[in-house]
Amino acid sequence: MMLPELLERKNMTLYQLSKISGVPYTTVNDIYHGRTSLDKCTAETVYKLSKAVDLSMEALLSPYFQKRISFELYKSNVCHRLKELGDIKFIMETLKNDDINKLFKRKWYPESLYLLAMLDYLSRENKIPLCTKYEPLRSMKLQETLYPTSVLAMAMTCKSAKIKADIRDQSIPEFLRHNIVENEVRNVI
What we know:
Layout: H1 3-10, H2 14-21, H3 25-32, H4 43-52, H5 57-61, H6 71-85, H7 87-97, H8 99-105, H9 109-125, H10 135-138, H11 149-158, H12 161-169, H13 173-176
């Protein structure tokens, strides 16, 4: 887990972490706010921080080595997971793991909002009340509309903006709320 989430769980402030670990406050603050990546710090810094939070160096570093995949691949993985688990189990697993907030805290906004849209869509489809935990995120929108790459390629090939407009009109409302164009989440192979 990333440093902000870890400190929250340990009920520890940045100042306390700095004092306990002996790592300068500015360094701890930079890591916390993402200005410095923990995997770029010296072994000594990682060692001191890991001791202060009672984790192995490997456990402390592991979230920083997770690489971001393309958004198209991420969407495909989510849709395949939905197909594999089914609606209810998918909803339960997503809520239990709190994947939406984990992605959001990493500043992976498209992935976080896509997963929230999926959760909201499945809740509507299954007549399940929305989880209120994510209410603050429901009003968030990506700055630019994200279209599937296949739609962008078709629009470019045909030199027609109408293709994008038509697909946007067919988009699932829960996704469109976040400026994500998605009209098919179940028909995956």
